[in-house]
Fold this sequence. Notes:
Layout (H helix, E strand, L loop, with lengths): L3 E5 L8 H13 L7 E3 L14 H4 L6 H13 L2 E10 L2 E9 L5 E5 L7 H4 L8 E4 L2 E7 L6 H6 L5 E8 L6 H15 L2 E6 L3 E2 L7 E2 L5 E3 L5 E4 L6 E5 L2 H11 L5
Parallel strand pairs: 1-2, 2-3, 7-8, 8-9
Antiparallel strand pairs: 1-14, 3-4, 4-5, 6-7, 9-12, 10-11, 12-13
Helix pairs in contact: 1-3
Amino acid sequence: MQPTVAVCQLALEDLAVDANLETVRNRVTALSSDVDLVVFPEHTLTGFVGDERIEAAALTRDSAPISELQSLAEQRELALVVGFIEVAADDLYNATAYVGPTGEMTVYRKRHLWDSERELLTPGDKLVTVETPLGTAGLLTCYDLNFVDDSAALAREDITALLVAGAWPGAYSDNWRLLLRARALDGVRWAIGANRTGQRDMPESEQVTYAGRSLVARPDGGIHQALDRQERTLVTELDRAVLESQRDLIGVFSE
């Protein structure tokens, strides 16, 4: 059987963990049983504001919402990729969690912080790969897509996909699509990007309109399937033969 991926495009509620967790639960329970991996946007559980209010929404790895994600993955026998603001000791991180079908969890901390994130958050210090139903995958978060060195470090024969959680602004939506396609092509792998849609419209916070336009890019850089800006879930099967044939054609891992 070929692996099936769901990409959930959401309009989140900033600083509203319970509401966002309920949205995640509803999206996952609505999926058919053949889905193997579900990818959600950046900041899925917590949302984000560029000031100290984010501290109240930040989550530890052993918090109840994270435990609920692990239980949900186990119950549904699928893997989840979910973003949140993590608190550890006295530091805050932009975290993307991979939760496997048995509840095991690996967390990637965003290495390249954007705009107000730099004033509030601590950057991560390492790249992360995980074993998924698609094979070995690298985790990236939003602005990380711009950094070719990171992509090159993850361009290995054993890495068959990039899983990207995004909260990319609508003003730069063409860049989001272009960079996902480029990262798929330069590593000859699938690139799966789940992006936030809707708006951040919080008092005393910059208003942001998010791009949506979540997509799955093929190993040749083409678009396999994509969304516009609606709150929807993209479900698609990934044919392993597509990856194999493109790698045979390009030959970058046979030298």
